[in-house]
Amino acid sequence: MKFRRKPRETVDINLASLIDVVFILLLFFVVTTTFTRETQLRVELPEAASGTPAPESELKQLEITISAEGVYSLNNNLLPKSDLATLTDALQKESGGDTRLPLSISADGKTPHQAVVTAMDAAGKLGFSQLRMTTVEAAPGNP
Predict the structure, then answer these.
(1) pTM of the model
(2) Which parts pass through the membrane (predicted)?
C-alpha cells in the first residue's frame, strides 16, 4: 500500500513584524541608557623646571592670588566673595580700565581647577592680553 504524502506547505516568516520589534527594542535601549563619563586618572601637576622671571621694570602689575580653599586676593587685598562677578569688578577697579597691564595668577598647588579657570575667565572677559601663571622652580634632581 502506497500512501500519498501531502505536499509540504512553504513556511514563510513575516520579517516585517520582526524588524518592527527589533527597532522598538533598539529605541527602548537607546532611550533608557544613561551615558556617564568616568575619569579614573589621577593627575599630579609637575613643577616648572624652566621659565622666565617677571621683569622688574614694570611699574604697575596686577596679581591674583588663590589659596588652597579657592579664596581670591588681588594685589594682596582679600576679596569678600570668591565668585566671578566680585573678581571681575575688583580687576576692573584696580586696573582702571587699562587691560594692557600684565596680570599674573599665583595659585596654590592644591587649589581647585575651577578657581583658576574662574580667574582666567575674569581676565579674558575684561580683555587682558598679558597673562602669566606663576610656579615654583623644581628642586634639583627632580626630572
Answers:
(1) 0.56
(2) 12-31
